[in-house]
Amino acid sequence: MDITTQKRNAKQFIQNWQNRGHEKQDSQSFWLQLLRDVLGVEEPEQFIKFEKKVQLSHESFIDGYIDQTHVMIEQKGSNKDLDKPIRQSSGELLTPFQQAQRYANNLPYSERPRWIVTCNFIEFRVYDMEHPNSEPVRIELKDLEKNYYQLEFLVDKSNEHLEKEKQVSLSAGELVGKIYDELLKQYKDPNNEHSQKSINQLCVRIVFCLYAEDAGIFGKRNMFHDYLEQFDVRQMRQALIKLFKVLDTKEEDRDPYLADDDPKLAEFPYVNGGMFSNEDIEIPSFTDELRSLLLSKASDEFDWSEISPTIFGAVFESTLNPETRRQGGMHYTSVENIHKVIDPLFLNDLKNELNEIKKTRQLATLKKKARKFQEKLANLTFFDPACGSGNFLTETYLQLRKLENEAIKLIYPNPSLDVGQAKDIIKVSIQQFYGIEINDFAVSVAKTALWIAESQMLEETKDIFYADWDFLPLKTYTHIHEGNALTMDWNNVIPNYACHYIMGNPPFIGASMMNKEQKEEAVSIFGKRPRTRSIDYVGAWYYKAAKFIQGTEIKCAFVSTNSITEGEQVQPMWSELYNKYHIIINFAYKTFIWTTEAKSKAAVHCVIISFSLLDNRNKIIFYDDTKECVNQINSYLLDAPNVLVRNRSKPLNKNTLKMTKGNQPSDGGNLLLTIDEKNRVIKKYPDLKEVIKLYLTARDYLHNNNERFCLWFKDKDVTNYNNPFVKRRLELVKQFREKSSARPTREKAQTPYLFFSTPQTNENYLCVPEISSERRRYIPIGFLTGDVIASNKLLIVLGAKLYDLGILESNVHMAWVRTVAGRLKSDYQYSSSVVYNTFPWPTPTDKQKAKIEKTAQAILDARALYPDSSLADLYDPLTMPKELLKAHQDNDRAVMEAYGLSVKGTTESDAVAHLFKMYEKLTKEQ
């Protein structure tokens, strides 16, 4: 949900709840609406629990509790004062907060709240239980439109504070967007390449000046504002041109009479760093609206010193055209997600090392260790080869400087006496951070974000020493390079022997979505091996990195779409990484949703993979909110043998029945009929009844939608149905196929009465939906009769029996699906070549096979108990009938026994590891 929508919804929420609020009648709808409309929770009913039981001397109930963020809510009516005690059923007088505290103290330790919120429909009070004696944050309903962000801790478990910094950064991004839009209107030719680059550079300069005046970098506050305020609209353009020239000129090189001509301009310091060096940028004329926006909204009414350079850099970059962002594959990253990469890659180890140093008791030894630690920090180098707005590099710089400041406090226990110059005390520099970015605007943003971060951290170090060090002129230079990372030699940016860590989130572009140039770039890196064209664009960064780190101890961690660890990409993607480059995966995050801080939020299903040539003993797999220490991590991100499953055209096991796609129409919809069309046609042409069949897509099958039909002339003489309706439909099919760009489709125009493919026969068959929700523990698989026509979105096994159903509906087979199947977003994408044909079937005894047939029939019988429920309803994990669940559990046990797996204690990972061993053995035998 973007900021504008949140503000609009918050305003509406205020209007809805002004002058109302009954504790019993309104509490739940109040919180559900707040979570859904203002805070963007899609299913708030699943997110918050009402009336949670808690055992005091009697059974009592908590008004609201949010497990995910550990929030307890004590709700009172609008007629209650949150400061006044209320008599309890026990006779005690307790304030709402004291009442909530009593509940919290009687909960299991793991359920005790991090936050307590008391509310009376007029005001929210937020108590941080990490600091139980501190004053609560007070948020009045009437102010929610501007302060709604203070309630984001309700839904964001990473929110250790109330995130004012984040909100300021997002609001700053909105201002930049407005300035950008107004400036763009003033350009004579806004589509001209020079104009495009100029407006990007102009926005960067304006933002730097706005930040510099608020942060005191220019020497005093409001300098930029006060200088521009002297000029009317017609003079603003020239005023900026003069200012930029002065900022790029050393004081000793300026006109000696400048202070006489324009004293406010002469006060500005020299900036350096190349930010203002290009005098060729095109600056348009201003309008009254633009002048007011810059001086009032962006300067007078906004404090830029509080922005987070990590978040703001990403939001700033989002002022680019959304279509440009999509084509470039850019996605902007939250601080929480950045830490998913940098914490296990290096930051946790550095924090642990500093904590150990702090335990040193002898002062001289403590200072020596702290100085050595600071030198270590100052010699680490970080490289992001797809750095975008530089948020990975910026956040890493901020974290290193915070650690350095902790070390500085240990080195200089008497800071007021030890004060020296910043250059002598601060060792960590933005010169340790390297990046490549193809977009020139993003390069400028990344440099600016690092400069802002450097400024903010200088202020924190100054506070330690009570020092008055100047930030300007800029003395450090950023190593952010404009260029195409896939065609550049990374050694020209940073030699591999000098690099310690590579990180980032390279572009997310699917193999089928790449343009011609991107495809050529990727293939030139992958090589023209079989199926390399199926690898996503992000894979090219893995290959470049794997080659770059040869002979070094560099550790890498990339965010990637989960597709590179699923389905048909795995084998071509990872075989060379393992066999040629010998990489080792040391930690990984399994699939999660990667959200962003950009104005147009992107949400992608991602994984994080860290690799190097070093074999870490402590390997970690992160998933959901847990982590598991493992011995190895394979390309499917499992603690299992490193086996790469290769697509197959035939089943791995001999005598396994063939699976094919259902029948593909390729007819432009002209062989298909709705139920109304079917009834009208049969009424007019009764003889067509025998060739009109029920037609099922995967969705129809799962949701009991028996309202789609088709003309099915297979094994029929079409000339016996020579009527105007059939003629017209077949002529339309013929025309549709003749216009196709695919030769096989054009050839099928000669038989318009037949589907493009018709693998189905008259016998009964087993069907598997090609796409199925990941929420389901089991994919709903079932039998259909031969007179029901399966679409190509259903996979079919002709002649299948109960035993086949039992195996495919088992937890063992579903474990295989979850591991090797492709995904559509996060939903299972079943295929015969990747899943079914590669699946190792068991070799059961006759007794075991009979038992599986019996448990498979029990699954069908359990479904039959609910004739009015669809398969989608029956297999919803929240509503799955107990009879069906038990039938599946019995079937699971029977199948596990056939595999020789212990029913007790075997995890899904164990089952997959067993299947991988079987797969490896079977493929070697062939």
UniProtKB/TrEMBL annotation:
Domain MmeI-like DNA-methyltransferase residues, every copy: 366-622
Catalysed reaction, written as an equation: a 2'-deoxyadenosine in DNA + S-adenosyl-L-methionine = an N(6)-methyl-2'-deoxyadenosine in DNA + S-adenosyl-L-homocysteine + H(+)
Domain of life from the UniProt record: Bacteria
Molecular function, one GO term: site-specific DNA-methyltransferase (adenine-specific) activity
GO biological process, one term: methylation
MmeI-like helicase spacer domain boundaries: 198-276
Keyword line: Methyltransferase, Transferase
Domain MmeI-like target recognition: 639-843
Domain MmeI-like C-terminal: 846-924
Domain MmeI-like N-terminal, first and last residues per copy: 9-186
Protein name: site-specific DNA-methyltransferase (adenine-specific)
UniProt source species: Lactobacillus amylovorus subsp. animalium
